[in-house]
Design a protein that fits this description.
The radius of gyration is 18 Å and the shape is globular. The chain is 60% helix and 11% strand. By secondary structure, the chain is of the alpha+beta class. It folds into 2 domains: 5-79, TusA-like domain (Translation Initiation Factor IF3); 89-229.
Length: 240
């Protein structure tokens, strides 16, 4: 039998069988206090572990892929402070907004302190997470909203949000290219990025997400959140 390489809140399951990875993750997760998080490292996307979490710990965790392999996939798993069996789109995706905002701020704090490598690494995780967020919105959430509301994809709020996503991605790439370079002047770009992203997120949290919850109903909204959790459509591989 193989053994996991365990350090505090890290499970390296790359040499484990699928069953061992599931059992090890559940054991490590159950040892977390509410609000604490762990890191799972696997040879694949970790879909079998996620399936067990969805089945056995519904509403108790947040699942955030942060780097895609090969050779190693890395996922952050948070034990929610206030678990609930059914999730709403608003609560789940607004949480991801807050998580990503915190990563971006942390990256720029490291840059201001002169720690350029940490700034680069943190911003890479932020960029990966934001690309994934945009991906599951466009490929899962928007389609669900359009179907439930009868709104065509080429007009209405989701059409506007797709245009905004392209601007957000462009600014993201420009900032990512300079975050690790002390000579890069990023203040103007970052200010523009915050303006666009802040307005975009506010529209989602105040209109799109709650409307989707209302149109879908509790059970269907919960299934949508589960589908978003398993989303692998856009790579979260860090771009250097």
């Amino acid at each position: 039998m193989t053994h996991a390489v365990l350090t505090e809140r890290i499970l390296d399951a790359t040499e484990l069988t699928a069953r061992e990875a599931v059992d090890g993750c559940l054991s490590r997760f159950d040892a977390l206090e509410p609000g604490e998080k762990m890191e799972l490292r696997t040879k694949d996307s970790g879909s079998e572990v996620l399936a067990k979490l969805q089945a056995l710990r519904p509403g108790e965790y947040e699942w955030s892929p942060i780097e895609a392999g090969p050779p190693v996939w890395t996922t952050e798993i948070l034990r929610r402070a206030k678990p609930s069996p059914r999730r709403e789109v608003l609560e789940a995706l607004a949480w991801d907004h807050d998580r990503l905002d915190a990563l971006e701020s942390e990256a720029f704090r490291a840059r201001a302190a002169g720690d350029l490598q940490t700034a680069f690494d943190l911003y890479a995780r932020f960029a990966a997470g934001l690309r994934r967020h945009i991906g599951f919105e466009e490929e899962i959430l928007f389609q669900a909203f359009e179907a439930a509301s009868g709104t065509p994809a080429h007009c209405g709020p989701t059409a506007v949000m797709r245009v905004e996503h392209r601007e957000i991605e462009d600014l993201l790439e420009q900032i990512a290219g300079g975050i690790g370079d002390a000579a890069s002047e990023l203040d103007r770009l970052r200010s523009r990025f915050h303006a666009v992203l802040g307005d975009h997120n506010a529209k989602e949290e105040q209109m799109l997400y709650p409307t989707t919850d209302y149109l879908l109903g509790a059970e269907t909204a919960d299934r949508l959140v589960r589908k978003i959790q398993v989303y692998e459509g856009r790579s979260v591989r860090n771009r250097g």
